[in-house]
Each structure stands twice: as C-alpha cells, then as structure tokens.
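Continuing the series of single-chain predictions for the mutant panel. This is the parent chain; the variants come on the following pages.
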Amino acid sequence: MLKIAIVHDYLIDFGGAERVLLALHEIYPKAPVYTLIYRKKRLGKSADKFKDIKIIQSNFGHIPFADKLISPLRFLIPGIWKSIDLTDYDLIISSASWAVTKGFVNNKKSLRPGGPPAQREICYCHTPPRYLYGYDTSRKFTGLAGKMVRFYGLVVNHFMRQYDFSQAQKVDYFIANSKEVAARIEKFYRRNSTVIYPPVEISRKHQASSSNASYYLPATSYYLTGGRLTAAKNFDIIIKAFNKLGSLLLVYGVGPQEKYLKNIAKDNIKFLGKISDTQMAGLYANAKAYIVAQKDEDFGITPVEAMGQGTHIIAYHGGGYLESVIEGKTGIFFDELTPESIIEAVQKFGKMKFNPNDCINQAKKFSNERFIKEIKYFINKNA
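Parent structure:
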C-alpha cells in the first residue's frame, strides 16, 4: 500500500480545482491534504465538503490575513513549500495552478540503494500560473497603483518563473486538465503530459421549486452567466452586450469585480450572489443559454455543468471551450471579445434550433466517474 499525500494550492474559494481535489480524495480517502492556506469562513457552506478530510495548512496560513498577503508576498512561496516535510510519503499528488504547487520530490536525496526513487510525484496541472506567463488574471489594476503593481510583478515574477520551471522538472508525470493546458506545459516547462479532463457533476435535471423560486423565472425567459466575478472572466463585456440587447441576464456568484459590474449594469441584469449547487442546477436548466467569455480558459467546468442540464452555450472561440462545446450542436461561438460580437451571437442563437439531449450526452463525457476511472488507471500504471 502506497502512503499518499495530496498537495493543493490553497483552500479559500470553491471552484473547479477544488472539485478535482475532492475527487482525488475520494479515490484516496486516507491521504491528508497539504495546502498553503485554509479558510473555512471564506469557503462558506462549501467548507462542509472538506469536513472529513485531514487538512494541514502551512505555518504561513496561520498568520492573520494570510489569504490577503499571499499574492503580494508570493516571493515567499518557495520557502513556505520547502518548510513542509513530505519525505514520509511514497506518492505525492500535487494539484497545481497559482502557487507553483509542484516539485516536492528530490529524487537525488530519496534513492533507495540500487533501486528506484523512494518517492514519485504526479502533478495534476490546472494551468501553469497565469500571472507568470501573460494570461489574464483575476484583477485589472489601473492608474498609478496599476503601474506600481506591474513594475513589482515584472521584478518578482521573473524569479518566480525560474522557480516554476525548476520545480516542474522535478515532477515525474504531468496530467493536464485540457489540451489547452497540455500545450502550455509543453511550451513553458518543455514537458509532456497526459490529458485527463476534470470531473463535472452531472446531476439529474433540476426544475424550479417553491423552496428556491426567488432565483428562477419561467423557463427560457433569461440568459445566464456567472461564477467567481473576476476580471479574467470578462463579465463586463457580457453585461455591456446585454445593456444594449435589453434581454434579461442573470448573474450568479461573487468576487472582486462584483461592485464594478453592478455599477455598469442596467435594470435588465440581475445579480444573485452566492447560490447552492441545487439552485445553480435549476438556473442552468431553465436558462435560454449559458454565456462564457474568458479569453484563455484553462478548461471551463461551468459550461459542461450547464450542458448537463440540457442548456446550450454561447462561448468565446478559444481556450478550453473548444474542447467541450460543439459548434451548432451544443452551442455557438463568438470570435471577438466585444459587446458587438456577443450581441451578434445571441441574435444568431435565437434563430437556431437545438436538441437538449445533445448537450446532456456531451456533458456525460466529462463525468466524475470517468475522471476517477482514468486517474486510477494512470496512477496504478505510473506510481
């Protein structure tokens, strides 16, 4: 029996990476989870999903406001990870994106006499850190403060890129969450990877009920978008498009851009805040279409969730969306990140006919069961 540890960036928000983490722990329920920072309050109700998991946060995580400080103090990340002792484990599964969460095995120091390395590391890479390689990130800084932040990033990120590359060379095997990310791993790390798409919860179709009716309107009366309200998701472009269209748009989720988005939205755009998984499924099921507009999406779980409820997608033509959405069958693409391009796509979508079963069948290709089967096979073969 292998002694296994799972290492994850941080547990502050609940999104696609955290769903992967839960699935990995479902496969290896005895494995502890090591992380930079763990904040139950910020996770809200999602914290209940981790109640039976042994979570070990770094010493840095115990510092007040560590969740706010980790980004500006990112140069401390190498030292923080180095302070965590993982030498007792046979296999380390790293779940990596923002915090260079990889490279925990030093094979030169862990060789069994005359035998193979005492440890192996398999890295499930959601993406190489977006902030290090020129991809859009969660915030956009403007003015003098923006110039100072960009200058600081220019200096610090140079050294962080070197560190990220060095750590990537210590990984035994990479798993990429999409072909898009596999291409980034090859480009930035010069490493090969195996694509295993992340798990998507494909539940039965939820219809509106009296317990959550305040979230719903009659079926197909609204368009839907949402998630973590960050700059990289380009919700502002979607909102500007619907300001002109005048059609009803529902936006779920919270995030750093929430106030700004509310300020630019007209009365036909409604913000729902945090919602439960059941409420989200109902929102998906009753929407005309689900709209996504990130420029370089790593994979994009929410469009697959929407398809799982039989709802079609209007997506930007790029990134991971190209691997889940089938043009003309499960949705349509728009080519430019402008309100005008989205308006054109919405109008085109309104004239087309789609079969909801095509969406449901496509979503099943990304099921939790499929993920667990593929991960088990890969690890049993390579660990």
